[in-house]
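re: ur question from the group chat, yeah i did fold both. here u go
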Amino acid sequence: MFEIKRYTKEQENEWNMFVAQSKNGTFLFDRQYMDYHSKRFNDHSLMVYRSGKLYALLPGNVADETFYSHQGLTFGGLVMNEKATAVDVIDVFNLINNSLRNDGLRRVVYKPSPWIFHRQPSEEDLYAIIKICGARLCARELSSTISRDHYNKWYHIRKDGAKKAKGLGVTITKSDDFQTFWHILTENLKKRYGVVPVHTIEEIQLLKQRFPNNIRLVIAKEGENIVGGTVLYVYDRVIHSQYISANDRGRDIHSIDLLFETVIRDSLITHPYFDFGISTEKHGTFLNEKLLYQKEGFGARAVCFDTYEYNL
């Protein structure tokens, strides 16, 4: 009934068209996004056909006899068409597992897309990997999300911060000045956490060029100076804050509070969810309570980003 093939560059258009029409795909799975850092990963993406028609995709890479879905993406998992059913997806995973075994792989690390990103209910894969694969939860990251239908009140500290920033003349606007924001972001991450952004400035500019409607920069300015900002990833049902940062002056004048007063309001006009991203580190074992408190202060509440693993 089903046939499985390894993805090749020649199938890029077919792959991308399926992602765009699937019930749970996002622009992260478009090959123009996935392949921007293709040299870092050994791609092993799979395409599942039924009676000659594409039925599902599994973005993935391999390393050390392990299949990952996908190490270069925030999340991955099986991308399905709207006709996919639970029984069929069970058959699909049997086929996938046999294919991976034949390729000499011994383990799968599976990171599905959280439900808020789905266009319609799409968790057939979660049932299948437990029922037939014996998957276990190996990591649980904690993200913070605001629902348009159940909007929580802000903490007073966030309201007061936004009011102070507005009184000092801080303005919020869209921008294409990724260069200046990246300098703020890089310095901030290096000073506070000893890390660098996942994307280089060249990479984020390339992705912005490829996906102008899906990647946005919103900045906070004091006069003509950028003091903070956020890079937004725009999905079908979610606007997600991929990066947030402010310099010392921006923090002093609470620019981020005013920034998100604007960003959240505008996001929930067009999308049912606004997501701040995770506040956990070390595969979810460390919770940054200070960062979480800030996000919950804007009315956000928990959504889990899970990772599973199983042996083949």
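okk and heres the other one u asked abt
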Amino acid sequence: MFIFNPDQHLTPSYRIGPFTTADVGRNSKMLADDFAVQYFNSRFGQNKWQYTFNGREAIRLALKKYELQATDLVTILTTSQNFYISSCVTNTIESFCQWNRELTPETKLIFVNHEFGYPYPNMQELVATGLPIIEDCCTTFFSQDEAGAVGSYGDFSVYSFPKFFPIQIGGLLVSNRSKDFQVNSRLLNVEKQHIENVVSFYLRQEKSLLVTRKDNYDYAVRLFSKLGLIPRFSEHIKSIPSVLILSNNGVIHDLNQLKLSLYDHGIQNSIFYGEDAFFIPIHQNLRTSDLDYFYEVISFFVENGTISNYQSRFSEGNTNN
């Protein structure tokens, strides 16, 4: 059985990314390894990529190259074209200029968010505009389109390691146009080495990592389909989802309350605002029993309409010893 409404100090912790507390110790003991350098040189080209502190810094460093003025306009496009967009993106752009969600004659730059691991479908049309493009591949590290060109359409592409690897920091900025480029990241040398060691370790396990992610995704889809919850995005053989995003189809009447209840049970999640959908973790470090737990918590919520919090069940001051 699974415990609902545990003491708030005894909840599990499931993050969207695969990092866990145990990785603090594991990562600190990783041996020096430059496999990531070989991998990125082969994938992106030598001297065309650079580590950053995180995905947000990679976006900032890419935008900085355009010398944008406060009145300039960046157009953000996403795979779904829903209005949902992370504040990590909008806040970073706002530190340079204005942004909107539709191409206009005033657009100076196109920022394409390959959303949740699903590539934007019309990249060639955007390239044909002649406008500069930044590709946000933060949730699309392993995904590709039919042309195998995701990450190479734009002037720059940006990546975030914690979305796919159990690491606390690390991003990547790739330049597709400059033969040799250098940016000033705030990363310390010791942090760069840490990122390289950890990412190298897990890139060596790429094949098994992707197989486990796909197995978890397929298992979870079968589970949640029993509740009438189905994947928001159509399955694509070359897409590696960063989360399990489910269309609600009216099954759950209050997604905001579901969000709170999932957090109360240690499950990081969010609503896909603007649509009747939400998303939960689906990474390679989850076991089927973890996915069963997600399912049971949501099933209980569906059946009961709410899950009362701990304090409503136990008197104040009662402790679990």
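fwiw on the second one: The two ends are 20 Å apart (CA to CA). Residues 5 and 309 are 6 Å apart (CA to CA). idk if thats what u expected
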